[in-house]
Design goal:
By secondary structure, the protein is an alpha+beta fold. Helices cover 18% and strands 43% of the residues. The protein has 2 helices and 9 strands. A 7-stranded antiparallel β-sheet has the order 2-3-4-8-7-6-5, sandwiched between helices. The protein is globular and about 45 Å long.
Length: 165
Amino acid sequence: MPTTLPVPIEFRLPEGWLVAAPPDGGASDVAFAAVHPQADAGFSANITIDGGFLKDSVTLVEVADASVERLREVAESVVVVHRHEVGSADAPALTQRLSFSAVAGDARRDLVQSQVYLAVLDTEDPHRRAMIRLALTATGAQHDSVLGEFQDFVRTVRPDTGAGV
Protein backbone atom coordinates (compact mmCIF):
# COMPACT_ATOMS: atom_id res chain seq x y z
CA MET A 1 0.00 0.00 0.00
CA PRO A 2 1.36 3.46 -0.78
CA THR A 3 2.48 5.57 2.12
CA THR A 4 0.65 8.67 3.27
CA LEU A 5 2.39 11.99 3.69
CA PRO A 6 3.14 13.29 7.19
CA VAL A 7 1.31 16.55 6.43
CA PRO A 8 -1.36 17.19 3.81
CA ILE A 9 -0.24 19.10 0.73
CA GLU A 10 -1.86 20.37 -2.42
CA PHE A 11 -0.28 20.75 -5.83
CA ARG A 12 -1.02 21.01 -9.54
CA LEU A 13 0.48 18.56 -12.03
CA PRO A 14 1.97 19.93 -15.23
CA GLU A 15 -0.40 19.80 -18.18
CA GLY A 16 -0.49 16.37 -19.81
CA TRP A 17 1.14 14.44 -16.96
CA LEU A 18 -0.87 11.39 -15.89
CA VAL A 19 -1.53 10.13 -12.37
CA ALA A 20 0.03 6.68 -12.06
CA ALA A 21 0.08 3.81 -9.62
CA PRO A 22 3.13 4.08 -7.36
CA PRO A 23 6.06 1.79 -8.25
CA ASP A 24 5.98 -1.86 -7.17
CA GLY A 25 2.21 -2.04 -7.54
CA GLY A 26 1.73 0.32 -4.62
CA ALA A 27 4.03 -1.57 -2.24
CA SER A 28 6.42 1.35 -1.86
CA ASP A 29 7.11 4.41 0.22
CA VAL A 30 5.69 6.65 -2.51
CA ALA A 31 2.52 8.58 -1.64
CA PHE A 32 1.89 9.90 -5.18
CA ALA A 33 3.23 9.22 -8.66
CA ALA A 34 2.66 10.74 -12.10
CA VAL A 35 4.18 9.95 -15.49
CA HIS A 36 5.00 12.01 -18.54
CA PRO A 37 2.84 11.02 -21.53
CA GLN A 38 5.83 10.77 -23.88
CA ALA A 39 8.29 7.97 -23.07
CA ASP A 40 11.95 8.14 -24.06
CA ALA A 41 13.32 4.82 -25.33
CA GLY A 42 10.67 2.94 -23.37
CA PHE A 43 11.11 4.85 -20.08
CA SER A 44 8.50 7.35 -18.89
CA ALA A 45 9.74 10.31 -16.91
CA ASN A 46 7.98 10.35 -13.56
CA ILE A 47 7.29 12.57 -10.59
CA THR A 48 6.97 11.00 -7.16
CA ILE A 49 6.14 12.40 -3.74
CA ASP A 50 6.99 10.86 -0.39
CA GLY A 51 7.86 12.08 3.07
CA GLY A 52 8.11 11.46 6.76
CA PHE A 53 8.76 13.11 10.10
CA LEU A 54 12.24 14.39 10.94
CA LYS A 55 13.89 13.75 14.28
CA ASP A 56 14.91 16.96 16.03
CA SER A 57 18.58 16.82 15.13
CA VAL A 58 18.28 15.50 11.56
CA THR A 59 19.05 17.96 8.76
CA LEU A 60 17.86 17.91 5.16
CA VAL A 61 21.47 17.27 4.11
CA GLU A 62 21.44 14.09 6.20
CA VAL A 63 18.12 13.04 4.69
CA ALA A 64 19.50 13.67 1.19
CA ASP A 65 22.66 11.69 2.02
CA ALA A 66 20.51 8.77 3.21
CA SER A 67 18.51 8.94 -0.02
CA VAL A 68 21.73 8.66 -2.04
CA GLU A 69 22.80 5.62 -0.01
CA ARG A 70 19.39 3.93 -0.50
CA LEU A 71 19.67 4.53 -4.25
CA ARG A 72 23.15 2.97 -4.24
CA GLU A 73 21.56 -0.24 -2.93
CA VAL A 74 19.54 -0.65 -6.15
CA ALA A 75 21.46 1.34 -8.77
CA GLU A 76 25.00 1.66 -10.08
CA SER A 77 27.27 4.64 -10.61
CA VAL A 78 25.23 6.95 -8.37
CA VAL A 79 26.73 10.44 -8.50
CA VAL A 80 25.53 13.59 -6.74
CA VAL A 81 25.81 16.01 -9.65
CA HIS A 82 24.50 19.05 -7.79
CA ARG A 83 23.25 19.92 -4.31
CA HIS A 84 22.03 23.27 -3.03
CA GLU A 85 20.39 24.34 0.22
CA VAL A 86 17.63 26.86 -0.39
CA GLY A 87 14.72 28.38 1.49
CA SER A 88 14.97 30.11 4.86
CA ALA A 89 15.61 29.13 8.47
CA ASP A 90 11.84 28.90 8.96
CA ALA A 91 11.22 26.97 5.74
CA PRO A 92 14.43 25.17 4.75
CA ALA A 93 14.67 23.23 1.52
CA LEU A 94 17.34 21.36 -0.38
CA THR A 95 17.67 20.43 -4.03
CA GLN A 96 19.92 17.78 -5.48
CA ARG A 97 20.44 16.14 -8.83
CA LEU A 98 21.65 12.55 -9.08
CA SER A 99 22.80 10.55 -12.08
CA PHE A 100 22.82 6.77 -12.00
CA SER A 101 22.45 3.59 -13.99
CA ALA A 102 19.64 1.16 -13.17
CA VAL A 103 17.54 -1.58 -14.68
CA ALA A 104 14.11 -0.21 -15.55
CA GLY A 105 11.74 -2.54 -17.34
CA ASP A 106 13.97 -4.96 -19.18
CA ALA A 107 16.89 -2.65 -19.95
CA ARG A 108 19.71 -0.89 -18.15
CA ARG A 109 19.23 2.86 -18.42
CA ASP A 110 21.21 5.98 -17.60
CA LEU A 111 18.85 8.06 -15.49
CA VAL A 112 18.84 11.45 -13.83
CA GLN A 113 16.83 12.27 -10.73
CA SER A 114 16.15 15.81 -9.49
CA GLN A 115 15.03 15.87 -5.87
CA VAL A 116 13.54 18.66 -3.79
CA TYR A 117 13.34 18.27 0.00
CA LEU A 118 10.98 20.56 1.89
CA ALA A 119 10.90 20.84 5.69
CA VAL A 120 7.50 21.88 7.03
CA LEU A 121 5.96 22.12 10.46
CA ASP A 122 3.34 19.54 11.36
CA THR A 123 0.00 21.33 11.24
CA GLU A 124 -1.26 19.37 14.26
CA ASP A 125 1.92 19.69 16.36
CA PRO A 126 4.12 22.66 15.42
CA HIS A 127 6.99 21.21 17.46
CA ARG A 128 7.32 18.34 14.96
CA ARG A 129 9.02 18.78 11.61
CA ALA A 130 7.94 16.89 8.53
CA MET A 131 9.87 16.38 5.30
CA ILE A 132 8.31 16.17 1.86
CA ARG A 133 10.46 14.87 -1.02
CA LEU A 134 9.51 15.65 -4.60
CA ALA A 135 11.46 13.75 -7.25
CA LEU A 136 11.65 13.81 -11.03
CA THR A 137 13.26 10.75 -12.63
CA ALA A 138 13.95 10.72 -16.36
CA THR A 139 16.43 9.39 -18.86
CA GLY A 140 19.52 11.51 -19.31
CA ALA A 141 18.26 12.46 -22.77
CA GLN A 142 14.80 13.55 -21.59
CA HIS A 143 15.62 15.11 -18.22
CA ASP A 144 16.34 18.65 -19.37
CA SER A 145 13.22 18.76 -21.56
CA VAL A 146 10.91 17.93 -18.61
CA LEU A 147 12.84 19.76 -15.87
CA GLY A 148 10.97 23.04 -16.43
CA GLU A 149 7.64 21.26 -15.99
CA PHE A 150 8.92 19.71 -12.75
CA GLN A 151 10.07 23.13 -11.51
CA ASP A 152 6.61 24.54 -12.32
CA PHE A 153 5.08 21.63 -10.38
CA VAL A 154 7.33 22.27 -7.36
CA ARG A 155 6.20 25.91 -7.28
CA THR A 156 2.58 24.75 -6.83
CA VAL A 157 3.26 22.55 -3.79
CA ARG A 158 1.94 24.01 -0.53
CA PRO A 159 0.41 22.84 2.72
CA ASP A 160 -3.24 21.87 2.35
CA THR A 161 -5.00 23.94 4.95
CA GLY A 162 -8.42 22.62 3.92
CA ALA A 163 -9.53 26.18 3.21
CA GLY A 164 -10.14 25.48 -0.48
CA VAL A 165 -9.27 27.79 -3.32
